C-alpha cells in the first residue's frame, strides 16, 4: 500500500510526463523540417535555418545547429518513453535507427565557409609602419594569422599531422575529381558536405548536357600543397570543444583532360598534354565526433588571386 508521500511523488511524475509528451511532438516536427531542408539543399531553406551567425569567445562563430540537435535527441527519447508508457525513473535508450539519425545530424556541416580566403593586397613598407592605415592593416593581418594558429593548435590536440593530412588531401583531391569526371554521384555524396554535394550534382548535370563523357587524370605526385587559412566554427556556446574546423588549401597539380560528344569525338582538351592547374579547396571536419572524417565543403575560384 502506497504512503501519502509516494502517491504525491507519483502524481507529480505523471504530470511532468504529460507535459513532456505535448512538447515532444513539436520538437520532432522541427527535426523533420530541418532534415528535409538539408536534403533539399535549396538556398531559401538554408537561409531560414542560418539567418545569422552568433559569435562566441576567441572569435569563433557559432552556427545555430547544435541546440536543435540536442532538443531533437531529447524529443526522440521522450517520445519512445511516452509511447511505451514507462515510468519517468526508467532508463530508456533510443533504438539504433534513432541513434543513427542523431549521429548523422551531429555530423551535418554548418553549410558555409567561414571567412573565405582572399589574398591581401601588398602594402609598401613605409606605409605599413608610418601611417595610421598601415598600422590598422598590420593589426588585422596579425589577427588573421592568430586565428589560423589557434585553429591549428586545437587540431593538433586531436592528433593532427600536417604531412599525413596533406597526403590525405591529395588523395581526396584525386578521388573527388575522378568521381566528378565519372558522374558517380552516389560515392561523391560521402566525400563532400551536403551543400557542396548539391552544387556538384548540378554541375555534373549541366556538363552532361554538353559532353557525353569526360576523361580526367592527375599526374602524381601533386606539385604543391600549402595551408592558406584555418578556421573554427562553434556549434555550442556552452562547450568550446564542440566545433567544426575548416582548412583552406592551395593545391597545385598537373592534370590531363579530354571531353567527348555523343559520337565519341574529342570536343575539348587533350589527354596527351599535361596542364598545371591551381585549385583552392576548403576541407571540413567535426572536432567533436569520434568517427568524423575530412570532407570537401567548398571551392574558391583561383581568379580572385589575379585581381
From TrEMBL:
Domain Tim44-like residue range list: 146-301
InterPro entries (UniProt xref): mtLSU_mL45, NTF2-like_dom_sf, Tim44-like_dom
Transcription in keyword set: no
Keyword Transit peptide attributed: yes
Cell compartment(s), UniProt: Mitochondrion
Keywords: Mitochondrion, Ribonucleoprotein, Ribosomal protein, Transit peptide
Pfam families with a match to the protein in the record: Tim44 (PF04280)
A cellular component annotation (GO) from this entry: ribosome
Top-level lineage group: Eukaryota
Family from the record: Belongs to the mitochondrion-specific ribosomal protein mL45 family.
Protein name: Large ribosomal subunit protein mL45
Organism of this sequence: Cajanus cajan (Pigeon pea)
Species classification: Eukaryota, Viridiplantae, Streptophyta, Embryophyta, Tracheophyta
Amino acid at each position: 500500500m502506497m504512503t501519502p508521500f509516494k502517491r504525491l511523488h507519483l502524481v507529480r511524475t505523471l504530470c511532468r510526463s504529460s507535459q513532456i509528451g505535448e512538447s515532444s511532438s513539436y520538437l520532432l516536427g522541427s527535426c523533420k523540417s530541418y532534415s528535409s531542408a538539408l536534403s533539399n539543399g535549396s538556398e531559401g531553406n538554408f537561409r531560414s535555418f542560418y539567418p545569422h551567425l552568433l559569435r562566441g569567445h576567441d572569435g569563433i562563430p557559432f552556427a545555430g545547429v547544435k541546440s536543435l540537435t540536442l532538443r531533437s535527441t531529447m524529443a526522440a527519447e521522450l517520445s519512445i518513453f511516452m509511447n511505451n508508457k514507462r515510468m519517468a525513473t526508467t532508463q530508456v535508450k533510443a533504438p539504433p535507427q534513432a541513434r543513427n539519425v542523431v549521429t548523422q545530424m551531429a555530423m551535418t556541416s554548418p553549410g558555409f565557409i567561414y571567412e573565405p580566403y582572399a589574398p591581401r593586397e601588398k602594402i609598401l613598407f613605409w606605409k605599413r609602419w608610418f601611417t595610421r592605415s598601415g598600422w590598422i592593416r598590420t593589426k588585422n593581418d596579425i589577427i588573421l594569422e592568430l586565428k589560423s594558429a589557434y585553429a591549428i593548435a586545437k587540431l593538433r590536440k586531436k592528433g593532427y599531422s600536417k604531412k599525413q593530412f596533406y597526403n590525405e588531401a591529395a588523395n581526396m583531391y584525386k578521388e573527388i575529381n575522378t568521381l566528378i569526371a565519372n558522374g558517380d554521384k552516389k560515392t561523391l555524396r560521402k566525400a563532400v558536405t551536403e551543400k557542396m554535394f548539391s552544387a556538384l550534382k548540378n554541375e555534373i548535370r549541366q556538363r552532361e548536357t554538353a559532353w557525353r563523357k569526360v576523361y580526367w587524370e592527375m599526374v602524381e605526385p601533386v606539385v604543391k600543397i600549402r595551408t592558406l587559412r584555418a578556421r573554427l566554427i562553434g556549434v555550442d556556446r556552452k562547450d568550446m570543444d564542440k566545433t567544426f574546423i575548416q582548412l583552406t588549401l592551395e593545391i597545385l597539380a598537373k592534370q590531363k583532360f579530354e571531353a567527348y560528344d555523343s559520337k565519341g569525338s574529342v570536343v575539348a582538351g587533350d589527354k596527351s598534354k599535361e596542364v598545371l592547374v591551381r585549385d583552392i579547396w576548403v576541407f571540413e571536419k567535426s572536432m567533436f565526433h569520434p568517427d568524423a572524417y575530412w570532407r570537401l565543403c567548398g571551392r574558391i575560384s583561383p581568379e580572385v588571386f589575379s585581381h
